[in-house]
Amino acid sequence: MIDGARKLSRQNITVRVPWHDTGWTGHVCAAPSANTSCLALARIALGKRADQDKFAGAAFDMLAAPDLPPCVDERAGFLSGQDLFLTKEHPYKASSPDTHGHFGETSLRFEAYSAACIPFGWMLRRQVEGDDRLGISGKADAFRLGYDVAREPDLPFTTSWVQDKSNQLIMLDTFFGALEPEASLCVFYAKRTPLAEDHRRVIIGIGRVKGVGQSTEYSYDSPGTLKGVLWERNVRHSLRSNGKSDGFLMPYHALLAAAEGDPSLDLAACVAFAPDDQFNAYSFGSEHLDDDAAIASLLACAAALRAAVERADVEVEASLQWIDTEIARLWKARGVHPGLGSALSAFGLDHGALLAHEMVRTGAEYGKVFDAFRFIDGFVADPQQFSQAESLGFGASFREKWQGLPSERRHLLELVARCNLQPNQALRIYQPSVRKLSRPTTDTEILTNPYLIFERDDEAADRIGFGVIDRGVFPAEAVRQTAPIAHPTEMTDAIDKRRVRALMIDLLENAADENGHTVLPRSWLVQRALAAPLAPKCMIDEDVIAINSAWLKEALTEGIAGDGPAYKLRRYAVAREMIGTAIRKRVKAKRHDLSHQWRKLVDTEFGALPPNADDQKDEERARCEKAASLQQLAQSRFSVLVGPAGSGKTTILRLLCELPQVNERKVLLLAPTGKARVRLEEATGRLGQGKTLAQFLQGLSRYDGASGRYYWNPIAPREKGFRTVIVDECSMLTEDQLAALLDAIEGVERLILVGDPRQLPPIGAGRPFVDICRKLAPPEQPPIFPRLSNGYAELTVIGRQRGSGRGDVLLARQFSGEALDAGADQVWDALNAGTLDHVRSVSWKGPSAVGESLTAELIHGLKLAGPGDEIGFEQSLGGSAYEGNVYFWAAREIGGEGAASRSHDWQVLSPIRAGLAGVDALNLAVQRQFRTKTKTRAQATRYAKIPKPAGPQGLLWGDKVINVRNNGRRRTYPEQQNTYVANGDIGIIVGGFKTKKMKRRPRNLEVEFSSQRGVKFTYPHWEFNGDDGSPELELAYALTVHKTQGSQFGHTFLVVPKHCRPLTRELLYTALTRHRDQLVILHEDEIGNLRHYAEPAASEIARRMTDLFENPVPIEVMTGTGPRFLDQQLLHRTSRNELVRSKAELAIAEKLHAMGVPYVYEQPLTLGGKMRWPDFTIEDDASGIIYYWEHLGMLSDPAYAQRWTAKRSAYLAEGVEPMDSANGAERVLIETTEAEGAGLDMLEIERLAKIVLG
Fold it and tell me: Residue 803: its pLDDT value, please?
């Protein structure tokens, strides 16, 4: 170990590896191009070759160096039994010959059964030296290392990495020196796998460190001032691919194989995710992992293994036994106080972490539990017992402070040390002056209930996790015997009421974040508690909950779900009250006395009626409902305006805002995303006057940008300057957002929520817009037109440009969840036949074919000359062609026409990120196909005028990109007063570009967003550095459907893979309504199978359990991807447990069932060679007659009636006779109708059923 490095106490190590499709044994993947999960790593994404498949299955050691895949450098062969030698070149040698040209090629040996680990976080200068601006404390100072900033060379370019050889060795020797063979564990993890669409790290396997290799210095071709070492060091481990491991691998490959035969297998439930509070330990390639975090990781693996064996035939027993043994060992090694360093820092010591390491190294004995507080007591009484304490800052004054601690303060400090907190977490718990919990909390309260540290830390961006506290107060028996927890903190048993409540809160928080539930049935909580990765298990059951009812009510609210009790977080009970009260009061309030000739306003806007008689009928209906809706919005104190794309919602809003009584009293425009904000501004003619919800609420202290949390704040100021507030795209609002908004506004005369409740529910808790619409909407029976009620206005007629008879509109409505007309099923045959207007369907077979199909469709749709037409492609992105090149410029004036003005001309959509059909692979495929010349220019080292490829995706000048985090601090040109770029904003990289006045090529990226044309936002180059960074800018040629919600594009290309678990009714509806002009569906499965997702059982909205206005009723429903629970309140379920589409169909089905009429719901039938689906099919075996029952609910709608006339003719052409003229026919058509405003005639239904019965 070099002088200046320090020997730390023993640590475990995390090792990042890429996903591999056959198991990391030193071979190329079996299907390299199909493995897109590995693209999450920058080196692989940038270096993976287009011809990679020709080396499929080849052993690494049999390939020539140029043919080795880039995953070799990312430890893809960590289970290989063969050594491998690689030749390394310094990354700056070619680009900086003056400073690094003397570095020569250097041979590096990758040892068998080892991982060449790089701790990037220990080589990143801001992590080593600290950065006050970013709140980063440096490792060099924290551990008092001999690292010297002055030794770092003065280079002609900026670098984020440690360059000096001595400094490098100091950091690397310190890091690797903490690994002890046989005692340290190595935890292998991946950033992304094909098992789950989840951003969390995935644990691949855990073994034991067997040894650590030596450092390797670079070779030199000639003398030079600067020297350096390779950062990799081989960490030998105990894992083996043949199962004879001292450790285990998770059975992911076996699970994926099982899922091939059973698409309903829930793979995500079988994944071991890294503990949420250990994100940093599972970052930067390799990092230290303390024993407490290692225990949490092992518990997560055990829970995933148990879930796996319940779902598939996999062997897990040996792995579970190994985990049990290791957890027992680690509890002893962990000691009593895993948070000692943080506790000492909170106590006031500058080098608490270093002190903790030194204490453990000095006082801990192998196999015995180390009690750090007893050790401190010893050297405080006799400083000679630990003489180095003085030099590390624990001098006489701190000894006096320690001895003078009141009993309660000492107990609190020890509690903090027993929990594995980070330094800033420990500080805010221990020091009352900076204690920032959601409620004032005393030392006594924390000691009485230590779980309050978790419960009341809910406002922090780095919230303290339940598991951290649980392991602190529920250690293993060996720890409890060594250092029992004092009264009143000690736990009585595993179902101590304090633990029970905290666990229930944790489960409810996870349910809200991951599933969108705001309430959980008690039985669900019981099941989730049993599956939680805890030791000992917290066996919550109905009896435990019953005896702790009063205690639970202090933090939770009890409700009802189905026929049993349910629980929800207190904040969602408050949100329910706030939202419900505000809406009920506003809807019941006296309406505004505002009179206009509403129909005349609409007629003036749209001009004369069309000359065609059929078009006149449609247009008359459209104007009728628009006028009525405008009146409703103007006169009511609260309204929802509902309608699909093209129905005229934004036109109505503009007409409203132009009313003098509205305009003069100021209008506030809000939207969840930046693009939705701009669309609302453009539609209302108020450019620059809108805000995103985050912008608006952050200024009123109701949104925290660091944590992304929306909250209400009764003591913060409210906005009082607007009398009308309009919020667009409200289907994206969570309950937290809506409650925060209601809390933030005052003096509002008119609150209007606008959106389409058929779209995807929000990412987060609840579905408030859906619940509000269901509360206020007029009853489904009897049908009325216009669909208006107090506080509710719905537009149902699509405008002439997107007529309701358009094929794409009819297709989207199949997934709307609304009652469909009997003739609407014509869309499926037309889709199959390729005759559906405005829709083009293209089949692709096999994973590798999707890229080729997409390329062909882009060429066709964008009218390119061919696959090499890069100029035409770049012009489709807003580039300007000049002398054989394309240039990307921002608009010259604010709001003008720049490159970003065409960023929404076309868009590729996919429901997933991973896989060849996922957006990660599709983005790279598009970039590689159409931007190769620009990439070559960007990679050039001489005469380059544009920045180098940036980040893991290699972003290029002219690329279409999306901003993925809210940010209000970016530098802009021209300089703007309130710079804010929102999550989801789409734009084009328009800079930098080297001009004659510039000496060097630009390094930063500049983006013009479609939401702020004429303004360039700067993304500094260093944001894209770092091996494990997650830049705020990503490619956007292809986006997930969720990311496009709130946006509209001219031409969309929807990629739909086979057996796609994320597919739901709402996702498809959202995807099918993102275009204006043309939709292309690229499908792997038969296109007609999409119809399964139009069924009620495929609803994602119905999966959410909420109780905003009514209690949920969870029922289990079988679907094509397995059983799932849905809220019956959003469904129409018959006594036979069938899900039908409307209340009318439900009434008919129930009557038929009650009368003993055997029916089949939506049984396929061929009419005229085309597949159709009658509502009910009744086969009378005795008479041989087949009855086809079709219910017709809205014949007053001309388009509806026209489609039914065509279907009825098809019935008659097949010899199916109407009931009233059947006269002994073997096939009979029964037609039932509803008069507008009258509803279903059940006596007529009964009469017809009696005829069927004979």
Answer: 55
Cα separation of 1099 and 758, whole Å? 10
CA distance 870 to 929: 8
With beta carbons less than 8 A apart as the criterion, state whether 443 and 432 touch: yes
Determine the Cα angle at 881 with ends 876 and 882, to 5°: 175
Distance linking the first and last C-alpha atoms of the chain: 96
Q: Output the 3-class SS for 657-723.
A: HHCHHHHCCCEEEEECCHHHHHHHHHHHCCCCCEEEHHHHHHCCCCEECCCCEECCCCCCCCECCCC
Rg (CA), the chain: 33
Q: Look at residue 847 and tell me whether its pLDDT is greater than 90.
A: no
The CATH H-level superfamily of 589-813 is P-loop containing nucleotide triphosphate hydrolases (3.40.50.300)
SS3 call for 254: helix
DSSP, collapsed to helix, strand or coil, labels residue 1235 as strand
Confidence at residue 1122, expressed as pLDDT on a 0 to 100 scale = 74
The whole-angstrom separation of Cα 650 and Cα 1168 is 41
885: amino acid identity, one letter: N
Distance CA 1203, CA 1225 (A): 25
Give the residue among 168, 180, 179 at the shortest CA–CA distance from 215: 168
| Cβ within 8 Å of residue 241, ≥6 positions away | 23, 24, 25, 79, 249
Report the distance separating Cα 484 and Cα 473, nearest Å: 10
Judge contact between 674 and 692, C-beta under 8 A. yes
The tokens describing 793, both together, are 């206005």
To the nearest 10°, report the CA torsion of 586, 587, 590, 594: 100
- Is 309 in contact with 345 (CB distance < 8 Å)? no
Average pLDDT over residues 241-245: 84
CATH of domain 1139-1253: 3.40.960
Side-chain-facing half-sphere of 339: CA atoms under 13 Å: 28
* Measured CA distances, 72 to 24, 68, 230, 528 (Å): 10, 7, 16, 40
What CA–CA distance (Å, rounded) separates 735 from 732? 10
* Angle in degrees, 0-180, between the axes of helices 407-418 and 372-381, rounded to the nearest 10: 130
Confidence of residue 1027 (pLDDT cuts 50, 70, 90): low
- Topology alike, domains 589-813 and 1139-1253: no
pLDDT 10s digits, 1144-1202 = 999 999 999 999 999 999 999 999 999 999 999 999 998 999 999 999 988 888 888 99
Question: Could you read off the pLDDT of 402-446 as tens digits, one per residue?
Answer: 999 999 999 999 999 999 999 999 999 999 999 989 999 999 999
Helices (H), 437-548: 443-448, 452-455, 466-473, 477-482, 497-515, 522-531, 542-547
- Could you write out the three-class secondary structure of 105-156? CEEEEECCCEEEECEHHHCEHHHHHCECCCCECCHHHHCCCCCCHHHCCCCC
Cβ-based neighbour number of residue 696 at 10 Å: 24
Q: Which helix (H) or strand (E) holds 45?
A: helix 42-47
Q: Are strands 286-289 and 233-237 parallel, antiparallel or unpaired?
A: unpaired
DSSP state of 479: H
Site of tokens 């537009």: 795
DSSP 821: P
The answer on pLDDT for 100 being more than 90 is yes
Instruction: List 131's β-bridge partners, or say none.
Output: 136
Q: Where are the domains of the chain?
A: 12-17+78-331, 589-813, 850-1094, 1139-1253
The residue among 811 and 820 whose pLDDT is bigger is 811
User: 795, 783, 787: which is closest to 754 by C-alpha?
Assistant: 795
Q: Do 206 and 218 meet the contact criterion of CB atoms below 8 Å apart?
A: no
Do 73 and 41 form a contact (C-beta atoms < 8 A)? no
pLDDT of residue 242: 84
